[in-house]
Specification:
Distance between the termini: 123 Å
Largest sheet: 16 strands, antiparallel
Strand order of the largest sheet: 10-11-12-13-14-15-16-17-18-19-20-21-22-23-24-25
Structural class: alpha+beta
Number of helices: 16
Family: Belongs to the DRC7 family.
Helix content: 25-40%
GO cellular component, one term: motile cilium
Number of strands: 25
Subcellular location: Cytoplasm, Cytoskeleton, Flagellum axoneme
Pfam family, one: CEPT76_peptidase
Keywords: Cell projection, Cilium, Coiled coil, Cytoplasm, Cytoskeleton, Differentiation, Flagellum, Spermatogenesis
Length: 852
């Protein structure tokens, strides 16, 4: 036993020595960090938080309520117990000072707020706004939490803050939007803590992951039909396999080269790895249909998995209701952590009254929890209550004006550097051309050689939404939102000059001809159609070289157009026609005066019917009439060896095709003119960019504001005039005496008597009308009852039901009329006396009726 005790003492002594060595190493690292200078961009000036004005802040910022003082006492007691039980862990982040130098518990700094902007109803909109609106400030010491935590209102006012400020603001917005969100105090990598995105791929450049399609398992059937023989060429299969092998080898070589580059680009080893303090937001699954728990980095606004290797550990989490300390081992980062905050073994809760966070409860469970608390309160009445509820937030309501929400970035501009890319953001209307975002892609890490530029626009009158420019090929692609004057959807070009390479895509629903796409170069033009009644889907035109060009003054077009060489049209299958009568392709060879028709394939045929028409020479024509000969048409009828000898049918077909050829030529010229018009309009739109302003944006829309002010003034004038023209109850009686300003006593008494007499007659007439309707309804009910007594033996069940319904309606009407008549009899004397009193006090009659 003594030997065992000695061994135990030796082991304890060895562990104490190791702990002393670890603490000495940590102290050395802290000394190095205190001497270390944090790298801040030179263009971001240091902000002196001690110089902010706190005189206008509410009293809740400057003093603590009794409940807050009690909460601070509980937090100190909790920290003492925690330090005693876990002496090797860092102190908790519980009650830093605010901007007024007053200690405030971190949970009361969260102010749940739902702001009146649709974008902020979702977590990604809230995270994007916080990351854009605020400017990041690094912690003074990267391995210790800050000594102060300012209110979200102050952070919004100055648009600056550290990771804890970012997280508290974002958490307040998320909880207000209905999410189960928590602030997290933990540890992360240097890239996360310092907002270093230079080694990460820009999110706009990430390709969506392709989901592999699972092959359908074919059920084995003993009596299945034998498959047809495989008629595929084995040589072609060998060639395809050879090409696939070469592609795979090239891909592997490319991956090896990328791995080598990645090894070179790997960040240097961080001496403070695992010690850098960071704050972020935890969103638990459940509320707002969140399927899986995830993290949000408030600096970037991006979501991360809870197994992300950049997050290295968690000390504590809190929301506006409670505070939890993580008791799980973080040796493997956050990958193995369980985020069930109701588990008292894994998470130590500070305020024990709330056994389970209400955010994790359903509505029924939450009501049950609240009712259980009320029951417990009744049972524990008279006893010392050891539980405690979180006091309300001391922070003033969070408010963001529409102008601040729209401007977002500090000074309206923000720049983010990524790996071989630079992302720039601007506030709407800050740039005259509507530019709000630009992504520049580089070929090297030093960002010197530009490869591609992508620009996003907003509020443009020409509906331009995005522009991509390839700097290597000088190819420009523009994308338009629906609503462009010419129905443009996309435009790809290298120059806005005519008869160069252009690819134009259109919103075919907005066009009568169903044109979806047009591709043009110097000698060709191809148009693609969708949803046409004639089943046309492709039209291809070829042009020849024009002769000597003649330029007109003040024009950019030539007087002679390009000669049309060939027009080719392709049609989809029309099931209402036989296949050998339904044209699939027709080619008009203009210069050769030949027309080729190819029909759709018939079922079980491998060749299609064809017809070739050769136009007659001018010498063979009789005026404008075509002289048809058998040599002018060559026909191949699939499945038949007989030739069609009916020249009349062929003559009519040729005549119709000739007429259609003329129409096609006209359509080709219209297409050329439309291309020139589009290019001219696009050039004018880019020369003088115009921005649209919503009619609801009265700050920018001067015309709308002027209309609103004019309408408001007109309404005020109308109301004033209406008040002046209010009906005068004495006007009919004053007319009789000539509207005299001064009346005699006799005239005043006459006006009074006439007014009272008129009211008396109107009250009597109204009562008589109600009495007459009442008597008529009673008489009608008596007649109905008499008719029923005489015919009740002959009535069917339906007729009896109709009678009872009718009697019920009449009885209801009689009841209402009786009530109205009774009310009129009661209120008539009161109305008469009220009018008499009003006449006595009327300034026009008071002089004569005051003593009457």
């Amino acid at each position: 036993m003594e030997v065992l005790e000695e061994k135990e003492e030796e082991e304890q002594t060895g562990e104490e020595l190791k702990a002393l060595e670890i603490s000495d190493n940590l102290q050395d690292v802290e000394m190095k960090v205190s001497m270390e200078q944090v790298c801040v961009p030179s263009d971001v000036p240091d902000f002196d938080w001690s110089s902010i004005d706190t005189s206008q802040l509410p009293s809740s910022y400057k003093i603590n309520s009794p409940k807050e003082k009690k909460l601070l006492h509980i937090a100190d007691h909790f920290l003492q117990q925690y330090t005693h039980l876990c002496p090797d862990r860092k102190p908790l982040f519980l009650h830093p000072v605010n901007e007024c130098g007053v200690e405030k518990f971190v949970s009361t700094t969260i102010r749940p707020t739902l702001l009146p902007y649709t974008e902020l109803y979702h977590w990604d909109g809230c995270a994007s706004f916080v990351s854009d609106y605020l400017t990041m400030e690094p912690l003074k010491s990267p391995i210790t939490p800050p000594s102060s935590l300012y209110s979200p209102t102050t952070i919004l006012k100055y648009q600056k803050g550290n990771c804890f400020d970012f997280s508290v603001l974002l958490c307040s917005m998320l909880i207000g939007a209905g999410y189960d969100a928590y602030c997290v105090h933990g540890y992360a990598t240097h890239e996360i803590c310092s907002l270093d995105e230079t080694l990460k791929l820009c999110p706009l450049l990430r390709k969506p992951q392709e989901v592999p399609k699972e092959g359908m398992k074919k059920k084995s059937n003993k009596y299945r039909v034998k498959p047809p023989p495989d008629l595929q060429s084995k040589f072609e299969l060998q060639q395809e396999a050879k090409k696939a092998a070469e592609t795979e080898a090239a891909q592997k070589n490319k991956e090896r080269e990328e791995e080598k580059v990645t090894e070179v680009e790997k960040p240097k080893r961080d001496p403070l790895y695992g010690l850098r303090v960071h704050a972020w937001v935890l969103v638990l699954s459940g509320k707002r249909e969140v399927p899986e728990t995830f993290f949000i980095n408030p600096f970037t606004g991006n979501s991360h998995s809870t197994r992300d290797e950049h997050f290295l550990g968690i000390e504590s989490v809190w929301n506006h209701r409670n505070y939890w300390v993580n008791m799980q081992d973080c040796w493997n980062g956050c990958k193995d952590l369980v985020f069930d905050l109701s588990d008292a073994i894994r998470w130590e809760i500070m305020l024990s009254r709330i056994k389970k966070p209400l955010q994790l409860l359903s509505d029924a469970e939450e009501e049950k929890e609240l009712s259980d608390r009320d029951t417990d309160d009744m049972q524990e009445k008279g006893e010392e209550d050891m539980s405690f509820d979180m006091p309300p937030s001391w922070v003033a309501p969070i408010q963001i004006s529409p102008r601040e929400f729209e401007t977002r970035c500090s000074q309206g501009r923000k720049v983010i550097l990524y790996k071989k890319a630079k992302l720039e953001k601007w506030a709407p209307y800050l740039n005259g051309n509507g530019l709000v975002k630009r992504l520049t892609v580089y070929a090297d890490l030093d960002c010197t050689e530009v490869v591609e530029v992508r620009e996003w626009f907003r509020n443009r009158e020409d509906m331009l939404d995005m522009r991509e420019v390839n700097k290597q090929t000088q190819l420009t692609t523009e994308y338009f939102s629906p609503g462009h004057l010419l129905g443009l959807k996309a435009h790809t070009y290298m120059s806005l000059e005519p008869e160069t390479e252009h690819t134009m895509e259109f919103y075919n629903e907005a066009r009568v001809d169903g044109l979806q796409k047009r591709v043009e170069n110097d000698n060709k033009m191809t148009e693609y159609f969708v949803g046409r009644d004639d089943f046309l889907h492709v039209r291809h035109m070829e042009f020849g070289k024009r002769g000597k060009k003649i330029h007109l003054a003040s024009t950019r077009t030539d007087i002679n157009s390009r000669p049309i060489v060939q027009i080719k049209e392709c049609f989809h299958r029309n099931l209402e026609k036989p296949a050998d009568e339904d044209v699939a392709e027709r080619i008009f060879l203009i210069t050769e005066e030949t027309i080729h028709l190819t029909y759709h394939l018939k079922d079980k045929y491998i060749t299609a019917s064809k017809k070739d028409f050769f136009k007659a020479a001018d010498g063979d024509r009789k005026g404008n009439e075509i002289v048809m000969t058998p040599e002018m048409c060559i026909t191949y009828q699939a499945g038949s060896s007989e030739k069609d000898k009916k020249l009349l049918h062929l003559y009519k077909a040729l005549q119709q095709l000739t007429e259609e050829e003329k129409q096609l030529k006209q359509q080709v010229r219209q297409s050329e003119a439309e291309v020139l018009n589009i290019l001219k309009i696009r050039e004018n739109e880019e020369t003088a960019v115009k921005l649209t302003v919503s009619i609801y944006n009265t700050e920018r829309n001067k015309k709308r504001r002027q209309q609103y002010e004019a309408m408001k003034n007109t309404m005020e004038d109308e109301l004033l005039g209406q008040e002046e023209q209010d009906l005068d109850y004495l006007a009919p009686f004053l007319i009789q005496i000539g509207h005299r300003k001064k009346m005699t006593k006799g005239q005043a008494l006459r006006v009074r008597d006439d007014c009272l007499t008129d009211l008396k007659h109107r009250l009597i007439d109204k009562a008589n009308i109600i009495q007459a309707r009442f008597e008529k309804a009673v008489e009608e009910l008596q007649k109905k009852n008499q008719w029923f007594q005489e015919n009740h033996n002959q009535l069917s069940a339906e007729e009896e039901d109709d009678f009872l319904t009718c009697c019920s309606e009449i009885a209801f009407r009689i009841h209402i009329l009786a009530l109205r008549l009774n009310r009129e009899k009661q209120t008539a004397p009161q109305k008469y006396l009220a009018l008499e009193e009003k006449l006595r006090k009327d300034p026009r009659l008071a002089e004569y009726l005051g003593h009457a």
